[in-house]
Amino acid sequence: MMRDLKWSKTEKQIAKKAFEKAYERECGDLAKKIQSEAEKIKVPPDIWRLQHFLNKKVREIDNKYDYRYSVLILMFARLIKDGWLMIDDLKGLGQEKIDRIAALLNS
Amino acid sequence: MMRDLKWSKTEKQIAKKAFEKAYERECGDLAKKIQSEAEKIKVPPDIWRLQHFLNKKVREIDNKYDYRYSVLILMFARLIKDGWLMIDDLKGLGQEKIDRIAALLNS
Predict the structure, then answer these.
(1) Is A20 near chain B, with CB under 8 Å?
(2) Contact B11, A14 (CB under 8 A)
(3) Contact with chain A for residue B20, Cβ under 8 A
């Protein structure tokens, strides 16, 4: 279980920093996509298309960035899989945590 | 009551054309606002702000552009009030209809 993991003060700082880094990266990427889609609006249905795209992405981000220690390992594995974080961004976390993340990445 | 008004074939064509003109204008204006807001995105909360703005505007447009003959007079009055249509765009409608729209505009 992920819930049994203890997070030291340093690990919490590393986790928080990695979380914020991934969040900034993903939101920055989304901002660029919104700008690109907005520029392409030519007819009214393009507005509705952008609305659906934006709502979907915002919902995804809201669901994904869940900073509870019980789900942090799963979230980091997903962020790495999706390309928003590298395992190196988590350097300093205990080996057990890194191993669990690596195991999820290989699963 | 608005429901008692009869619409001739010509009046229906004029109404439809005015409806589409206002819709194109308002959507075109919204597209420009979206592009301008998208360009201003600097931090993640700006994305959420744009999402709320877009959802609100799309809901407003969806509610407003209601092409039922029973509400057409009310809709045209509102479109003129909001600046998306001019009374001249409705030239060719029967005088009774024009009078009712004018009465709504002065109310």
Answers:
(1) no
(2) no
(3) no
